[in-house]
Amino acid sequence: MDIRQLRYFAAIAEEGQITRAAKRLHMAQPPLSYQLKTLEEEFGQSLFERNGKVMELTEAGKLLYERTNELFRWVEETMHDVQQVGEGLKGTLSIGSVKSSFSYLPSRIKKFRDDYPDIIFQLYEGDSYRIAEYLRNRDIEIGIVRLPLDLHDFHSLPLPADRFVCVLPKDSTLSDKIHLQDLAELPIMLLHRVRGIGLYELVMDTCQEHGLELNVICHCPDTSMLLTLVKSGVGAALLPLSSIPPFYSEWLTIKEIEGLHIKSESAIIWLKSRRLSKQAERFMSSIHSL
């Protein structure tokens, strides 16, 4: 049994005659009769009762006709979905992002979904090293990372540079701007990758260049953990400004650092050895157009 035979069967059921069905299908009557006989032999059931010139479905035939229509709908939907996925109008797009750069994504995902509402996003989180591994393992197609990172395997699109700020508890009594010497007196918390060189080394190296020795009491790869520690009064955090969600301003104080200018660079990356799906290509095009 194949789709072609089922289309022959459905035409006979709908026309009620072999002759009319053959005319509808633009084929001779004997081959159509043969296909019906073959189908009935395969099922071991009569699918029609001959009532004069009219052919009426048996109970088995009614069930097959019902299931055949369901199958036709499924085939049509599958063909449509495959075409839509192939054209990048439907499907799943997997993106990974470091938490400290995630603020770059929401508005772009919103804009993209306005244009392509049938594309589903699958998001992964991790530090830059982990995002790179997700890409190499082909778990995701696009990654958003903080630099520095070894980009030998990747194409990259730079994102706007981000300045570092000092984050303190809401009840902090320090002035509007924190001076370089103030940092030496504070218990400092920093982002630190699980593996590789990243923001921690960037901050520490820049401070050393200014002759400043920080009192680092905590470092971890998760921005939200550091912000929660700051809220609890454990210490101050030096973080890229874009990594701090707006709602945290209710509980925290964010201050510029006078005399210490640290810039954090981010990038969108994707594998050189992998061709992007149509969904990913459309997403990248939408970013370029903004």
Structure characterization notes:
- This protein is α/β, with parallel strands linked by helices.
- The chain has 3 domains: about 5-85, Arc Repressor Mutant, subunit A, CATH 1.10.10; about 90-160 and about 265-290, Periplasmic binding protein-like II (D-Maltodextrin-Binding Protein, domain 2, 3-Layer(aba) Sandwich), CATH 3.40.190.10; about 160-265, 3-Layer(aba) Sandwich (D-Maltodextrin-Binding Protein, domain 2), CATH 3.40.190.
- The chain is about 40% helix and about 25% strand.
- Strands 7, 8, 9, 10, 11, 12 and 13 form a 7-stranded mixed beta sheet that branches. Strands 4-3-5-14-6 form a 5-stranded mixed beta sheet. A two-stranded antiparallel ribbon has the order 1-2.
- Helix 5 links the parallel strand 3 and strand 4.
- Helix 1 crosses helix 2 (about 20-25) and helix 1 (about 5-15) crosses helix 4 (about 60-85).
- The radius of gyration is 32 Å and the shape is rod-shaped.
- The mean pLDDT is about 85.
- It holds the Pfam family LysR_substrate.
- InterPro entries: HTH-type_LysR_regulators, LysR_HTH_N, LysR_subst-bd, WH-like_DNA-bd_sf, WH_DNA-bd_sf.
| Morphology call | rod-shaped
The pLDDT mean sits at 87
Structural class: alpha/beta
- Assess the beta-strand content as a share of residues: 25-35%
CATH homologous superfamily of the largest domain - what is it?
A: Periplasmic binding protein-like II
Please trace the helix and strand order, writing H or E for each element: HHHEEHEHEHEEEEHEHEHEEEEH
- Uncertain regions spanning at least 5 consecutive residues: none
Report the CATH topology name of the largest domain: D-Maltodextrin-Binding Protein, domain 2
CATH level-1 class of the largest domain: Alpha Beta
**What value does the Rg take, in angstroms?**
32 Å
